[in-house]
Amino acid sequence: MLDTAKIVEIIRAIAARIESEKDCLTQLDNEIGDGDHGINMARGFKAVAEKLPELSGGDMGTVLKGVGMQLVSNVGGASGPLYGTAFMKAGNVLNGKDEIGAQDFAQALAAAIGGIEMRGKSTEGEKTMLDALCPAYKALEEKLAAGADLKAAMGAAVEAAQKGTEYTKTIVATKGRASYLGERSLGHQDPGATSSLYMLQEIYKCL
Length: 207
Ligand code: ADP
Ligand code: MG
Hints:
By secondary structure, the protein is an all-alpha fold. It has one domain: DhaL domain (Serine Threonine Protein Phosphatase 5, Tetratricopeptide repeat, Alpha Horseshoe). Helices cover 71% and strands 2% of the residues. The chain contains 9 helices and 2 strands. Strands 1-2 form a two-stranded antiparallel sheet. Helix 1 crosses helix 9 and helix 5 runs antiparallel to helix 6. The radius of gyration is 16 Å and the shape is globular. Adenosine-5'-diphosphate binds next to helix 3, helix 5, helix 6 and helix 9.
């Protein structure tokens, strides 16, 4: 079971983690992009953290949609609208809820991923955040179907996201700024997959 207070705690943990990994994310984006992913994300999540006290009076849907809106309006770069859409879509699924179970959580994650795919016209295997998120969702679903609880299932999801993020080093980018590099994007880890991995790790730690 997850309640709204827990969701707020998770968002706060994600904001702190993004801030502390700012340089690392920016370094990764220096290699295959324009070197702003850490700066973009830290700016967005700082705005989120500032808005949280006001948002936390609402239900889960309100919180997550508020987070999404802060990201869309404060993150420059491609990742803002993508993560923003993801949080808003998750918020739509959890509209009006103050408590959810593992299945609701999985549905919200699926909606978040669907939002990124729609907004980014992208799919797994293109060296993006989806290469962390899609395997994570698959692992989560598999474990839940096998009877695992949310914490155990999220543990498997984080492992899958780790592998997926590692895998981005071995593929060529076909979406986003890194796609301009073509073959030269090989050997580099995708910054967006890395920020997604951090978010999933924070969710797991808070459960
Ligand atoms: P920008 O590329 O505009 O500078 P960021 O540096 O903040 O934006 O974010 C880059 C990350 O966004 C990439 O590492 C990748 O994971 C993700 N990304 C870019 N384009 C797409 C897309 N079409 N679909 C999914 N993710 C994408
Ligand atoms: Mg960038």
